[in-house]
Amino acid sequence: MNKRMAWSALLGIAGISCCIVSALGGGHFFLSAWAQNAKKPAERTPLVLDRAPLREIADPNPVFSGIAMDSQREEVFITNDNEPSGVSVAVYPAKFTPTENVMEPRRRIAGPQAHLGLPCGVAISPENKEMYTVTGDGQNLNVFALDANGDVPPSRELTVPHASGGISLDAKHDELYITTEHVNKVSVYRRTAKGEEAPIRYIQGPSTGLADPLAIYVNNETNEIFVSNHGNWRRTQPGEGYSQFGDGPLAFVRGSQSHPGIVEPLAPSTGKFLPPSITIYPRTAQGDVAPLRTIQGPKTRMNVPIGVYRDPVSGELAVANGDDSVLFFAPNANGDVAPVRILKGPKTNLKSPTGLLIDAKNKELWVTSWENHTTNVFPRTAQGDVAPLRVIRSAPKGATFATLGRPSGLAYDPKRKQILSPN
Amino acid sequence: MSHPRISAFASSANGNAPAVRIIEGQETLQGRTDHEIGLDEVHDEIVAANPFAQAILIFRGGANGEEAPARVIQGPKTQLGYTDNATVDGVHGEIYTAQFRTNAILVFNREPAGDTPPIRIIHGPKTKLDRPERISVDPVNNLLAVTTVQGLWIFNRTDNGDVAPKWIIAGPKTGVGGEGKRLATVVLSPLGKKIIVTGEREGSKVEGGQKGSFVGIWNYGDSGDIPPVALLNGNKITRMARASSLALNPGEKELILISAGNILFYRLPEVFR
After folding, report:
1. Which of A1, A151, A347, B165 is most buried by a 10 A CB count?
2. Is A39 on the interface with B (CB under 8 A)?
3. Contact, A304 vs A230, CB < 8 A?
């Protein structure tokens, strides 16, 4: 090999190497640059590895979660906490011709100005022409005009404890009730509260039986509060609150992302698992009060219950149950009692139901079915394995979904070649 | 508002692909908040956290449906507080968790579970731990990394008591640490000896306003106010926003990332060198 051929061969090898490195590294000379960087850590300039993802698991379809009805205008408001679809509150007509197609909402509140967080609970005041939402991943209660549409800011915001998911309005007494799973708390605010206004009363403490509370329903006829609990319990102090962000008063109480707060001492743990329950309190309960009644135990068949609603006609308590069912309990149910009826089965189209309401005027039961992107309307007294009268879909019938609810952890399982994510 | 669960997807999944299995239901004892899980490849187990019941749940690696944990770490002796994270070192049979509100790192034997005290606790003024949040262990090089509000703290894996960190990565040049920024996750990669974090350069002061997502990569031994070796920035190319967790697939040279409700897969062979 002469000198010219040797240079040609070397250049060829270098060219191939560059191509390989470029292909592997997305167009950068990573190997040499990385090595150079390693020599001078304090002065290094970071290599920029920006590149498009190879692939992406995402569900672009809205889900249906919390639900409320404006009976006067015959509209339903449904929250969507699926980030890849753009979180929103969608407004649909209460009456519509049954269809198997995807149904577009009449209006949709969505966008950065709306500051929805991951909206969970929703409540309506037709009299005041207002809609209220709370976020399961933020710390705000947002108020919108009933006819709000698009990327609009809330007409007012109220700071509430972090991750408050359930909300109910007592129109008679003009009060808003919310639940907070992080601190096992029910907080009651003036309907018109805003900013950093404190609750006018709360239910919290070891006697309350609150254990990871999710949904709430306030009945101002029987003066009762109904709360669904997943059963995850730790001892809380009455008045305890928590903010994860911001500069509000709660952000200083205990460590938040923005302030050190009070560092808690290492101490004996108090956590334990309780069976899931519905706890019922007097409407005006305050502080560390025991429930009037607790529906709890194996006969209840509760399994990660979320939505709870009292039937204004029969007084029965309807519960959206995590085993793809709706349970109905007798009006004065207490203790380990069986449901008086159950809506469950493949015809019901229920898959991870989360929210529900009973429309007494039209004698209908509405159930949001989070996992299959449907809201299902049944006769009010439906039981057993019955098909819904009509269905709102946000995705084509029969489609499959990734349906991730706020994924927040990851692990790779090399044995099964799987990605694990709690969500 | 989903029911609490762990979804498992094929590592080759793409688009709106359904999970191949889901661990969910009352018997699983999960809460709706679990920000970090661990996988014990040696014993084929999944380690998850439940902050609301102050518990660490250990499932079979192949758990599916409404399957109860094989073991639960919970009880007064555990000193577990708000426990939203857990990771596992299968080689040494140990489970780790960072405790945000008590400025502590608790280490447990993987068994027996139940009401068992930690075998080690990193805690005290010398540790300078300030709101530790996520944790990663390298059993090969015996390192333990933990994110804090002030930056990234790296200890020896077997450290115990009131000990100073081995390395600290924090300061203006690092882009991490300090009120208002946020380190969301850390992963130690024995292959390539890299420290990989996700975070937000700004915005944690106000929820919903987070921005400046990035993945930062440092070498083992890096300490002080030094820039990362490499960066993956949140922008239109990477489509990364609100990066909250990551995992590595060494076989495919992939970095897997949670970004605003999506799971993104990047091929990053340089991380594994």
Report:
1. B165
2. no
3. yes
Query: What residue ranges do the domains of chain A occupy?
Result: 3-39, 67-393
Beta carbons within 10 angstroms of residue A233's beta carbon: 21
What is the full DSSP assignment across B77-90?
GG---S--B-EEET
Which residues in chain A are closer than 8 Å to B230, comparing Cβ atoms? 34, 37, 46-49
Name the band, by pLDDT with cuts 50, 70 and 90, for residue B268. Answer: very high
Question: Chain B residue with minimal CA distance to A140?
Answer: B207
Please tell me which of the candidates A81, A137, A181 has its beta carbon nearest to residue B52: A181
As for the ipTM of the complex, it is 0.96
Residues of A numbered 157-186 whose beta carbons fall under 8 angstroms of chain B's beta carbons: which are they? 163, 165, 181-182, 184
Q: What is the mean pLDDT of residues A5-31?
A: 42
Read off the pLDDT band of A37 (50, 70, 90). low
As a whole number of Å, the CA-based R_g of chain A is 26
User: What homologous superfamily does CATH list for A67-393?
Assistant: YVTN repeat-like/Quinoprotein amine dehydrogenase (2.130.10.10)
A412 and B46 in contact by Cβ < 8 A? no
Query: With 0-12 CB in 10 A as exposed, 13-18 as middle and 19+ as buried, what is B109?
Result: middle
The whole-number pLDDT of residue B53 equals 98
